[in-house]
Amino acid sequence: MSSARESLPFGKPPEMSVVVVSPGGVEGVSRTVHHLRRQTARQRLELVLVDCGGESLAAAGGEIDGFAALRLVDGRGLRSTGEAIAAGIRAASAPLVGCAEEHSFPEPGWAEAIIDAHSGPWAAVAGVLENANPATRTSWAALLSDFGPAVAPAEAGEAAELPGHHTTYKRATLQRYGDRLGRILEVEWVLHDDLRAAGERLFREPRAVSHHLNVSRLGSHLRAEFCGGRAFAANRARFRGWGVPRRLLWTAGSLLMPLVRFARARLDLRRCRPTSRRGLAAVLLLGLTANAAGQMLGYGLGPGRAAERRMANELNRHRYLRRNERVQLAALASEDLPRLSAADAPDGLLQEA
Length: 353
Description:
This protein is of the alpha/beta class. The chain is built from 14 helices and 10 strands.
């Protein structure tokens, strides 16, 4: 069970709380925290660190300077990314709440653009994503399959869906989900669909840019897609209250999903013009097929341990990068925005596994 351990206000009340989930200690999210410290709106932010290895705030040192407030949440024992984010949101105090992943690094104007956009009639606002490791097909396939419409370049405007774990909400909007919040945050498409059904509106703000590290090992990508698909389907059926007949219908319908989603992904591919395109369509289709297989199990048998297995991927992204990318990442200073090069990238389709 999570609990907010400490809170230190440094200035005016925060306008936005940013939840950062760490696998252990401030060091586990140091690069993300560095980029949050560089925000032009830093003094308007509350930083909420979840499961930071039981450290005290004093151990964070200069990492916390300049924020409006800091809150440390003990999230040990939580078994899914959604539950960890929900624990941070429940501990947050600002009227706007969002998440910054340990493998995504916002540009300095990110928070200011998000806060400004929330002055409109939007329940949720998100920015766009740049590929931080664009040298491999698998990285692009992961980015496009998970975040397609939100991959830069993208236009500003009302959106039908926003990128999961990169969306900021009005806190009052989320409070009505109560104990269900962690489950619905695990795969946020379900949440966004529910918000639209309730008459709420979503907005994409392209001035808010974050650089996202993607899984670049083929086997890891396929496992992540399978777990994501299973968690999504199980949560969707549960929140919709679907009975056995409808679950069976969607189990069968999942066979068609790779083709439907592939057609959509090709539109995003043309818009984004990835730097590594040879064989990309094949890797993309493989990932979508793995996701559909996960959905079949999710609709038919429930979530299993999909969320727990997915959590390792979300909180330790460096383990799922190609070796040359891990070496490059380790050599960068914590505050540098990673854009890993194409050095040693293979040509063969399956050599990235």
